[in-house]
Amino acid sequence: MNRRKFITRGALGVGATALVGVSAQEDAAAQQRITKWDRSADVVIAGAGASGLCAAIMARDQGASVLIVEQNHDIGGHAMVSGGRIPLGGGTRLQKKFGIADSADQVYLDHTDFHNLELRYSDRELVRVWADENAATFDFLLDNGVQFEEVTPTLVNGGTVPRLFRTKVYSDDLKVTINGSPGSGLVRALEKSARAKGVEILLNHTLTRIVRDEKSQRVQGIVAKIDMARCWRWRWARRCGARRTSRASMAAR
Ligand SMILES: Cc1cc2nc3c(=O)[nH]c(=O)nc-3n(C[C@H](O)[C@H](O)[C@H](O)COP(=O)(O)OP(=O)(O)OC[C@H]3O[C@@H](n4cnc5c(N)ncnc54)[C@H](O)[C@@H]3O)c2cc1C
């Protein structure tokens, strides 16, 4: 799919524009006055957690320009403090390396097994889609620099095939890994890949509103608030992406 088709078919719902304001009243007033956006991108994503980072990389891989607004002073979300346990199979490259035979069908069967009390009532259609994407998703993580502990995976979720790998802690720096959590190996690697590919991440930016066209209700953009004090306090203004102002705006294509 080329960039044009990707934007047209897949990303308009999230393609967005941001106006950065400082209060609810100012946001409301500013929305009336939005005639020129300060920033523009094909796709704007709220949240630089595991989902947001993956979505950003995938959009960028399709040729879209991507901005992420993240309310926290760092990327990662919950995944940063997570156990980094990734229960994906279906015949991943790492499973093959350990001589484990698996398939999307086996993933589907395991996650809809009547004897599995937790999973027996799973939505079949959802599990089917998820099962079909298991291996590709895991390999996407490998392709984007995520490293896993190279030990034989373990069984998980009552499955019949070992699928559970754990990400390696990203570094020895406890600040970078937030107390050495394995999840750092997931999100720091994704962050590195996203930035290298040209995704712009705006930290300390909180999405406060989605702006829609009044008539068509089509998404035009978002309103976000910058925590300028925190940007400068942490001397992360450059990573924050903020200018020397508490107001700025961004536009969608
Ligand atoms: C202690 C712990 C251990 C875990 N261990 C595992 C595990 O081993 N394996 C596993 O598969 N799962 C594990 N999980 C679950 C997993 O971490 C989460 O399911 C996953 O991280 C969710 O990612 P997400 O990106 O969807 O959401 P989130 O991590 O919640 O990310 C959302 C991001 O959006 C930002 N945000 C929110 N609102 C706004 C806004 N208005 N504007 C801008 N930014 C905003 C947040 O700051 C955050 O960075 C664990 C979770 C925890 C808490």
Topology, element by element:
Layout: H1 3-11, E1 18-21, H2 24-32, E2 40-41, E3 43-46, H3 50-61, E4 66-69, E5 85-87, H4 93-97, H5 104-110, H6 124-143, E6 164-166, H7 174-177, H8 184-197, E7 200-202, E8 205-212, E9 219-226, H9 228-233, H10 237-240, E10 248-249, E11 251-252
Parallel strand pairs: 1-9, 2-11, 3-4, 4-7
Antiparallel strand pairs: 1-10, 5-6, 8-9
Helix pairs in contact: 3-8, 5-6
Bound molecules: flavin-adenine dinucleotide.
Supply the helix-strand structural class: alpha/beta
Beta strands, count:
11
CATH topology descriptor of the largest domain: FAD/NAD(P)-binding domain
Bound molecules: flavin-adenine dinucleotide
The total tally of domains equals 2
Q: How helical, in percent, are the residues?
A: 25-40%
Shape: globular
- Please outline the major beta sheet: 4 strands, mixed
Q: Are there runs of 5+ residues with pLDDT below 50, and where? A: 9-23, 244-248
Oligomer: single chain
SSE ordering: HEHEEHEEHHHEHHEEEHHEE
Q: Please write the CATH class name of the largest domain.
A: Alpha Beta
The proportion of residues in beta strands is 15-25%
Note the gap between the termini.
18 Å
| CATH homology group of the largest domain | FAD/NAD(P)-binding domain
Query: What is the mean predicted local confidence, pLDDT?
Result: 84
Helical run tally: 10
- Please state the second-level CATH architecture of the largest domain: 3-Layer(bba) Sandwich
Which strand order do you get reading across the main beta sheet?
Answer: 8-9-1-10
